[in-house]
Specification:
This protein is mostly beta strands. It has one domain: Hypothetical Protein Pfu-838710-001 (Beta Barrel), CATH 2.40.320. An eight-stranded antiparallel beta barrel has the order 1-5-4-3-2-6-7-8.
Amino acid sequence: MATEIEHKYLVIDGSFKDLACHQYEIKQGFLSRDPERTVRVRVRDDEAFITIKGKGEGAAHPEFEYHIPIDDAMEMMAMCEPPIIEKTRYIIMHEGNRWEVDEFHGDLEGLILAELEVPSVEYRFPLPRFIGREVTGERQYYNSALGIKMKDRE
């Protein structure tokens, strides 16, 4: 089984853009937003993926991700539950770690989240200067929960 261990943070300023070594445009939707098993379809520039995530504890959860044909992804996207999320992802290397910073668009404009995947729960890492409060494990910051009306989350 594949396990993803990831820490998530709010971003407090735009200084990350000057540090980015690459950026992608991402459009993603969810075929299932069930917290026990989310199924996401993502188009990143000219690539597409389907990802299945299981419920985990803290920063760790099972995750399976596969490349799929972009035409299939676009058809699947039409079957996804609203809303479809659009964001720009910036890649930042900081002291040997690869940070992904997502700047959301549309109804989520103004939300910026940073994520860092780590090799183990015990792994320690320095924080870049643009990092704010940690929101790892706070469901309202999961991509599968973003954009959903608060009454629909309860």
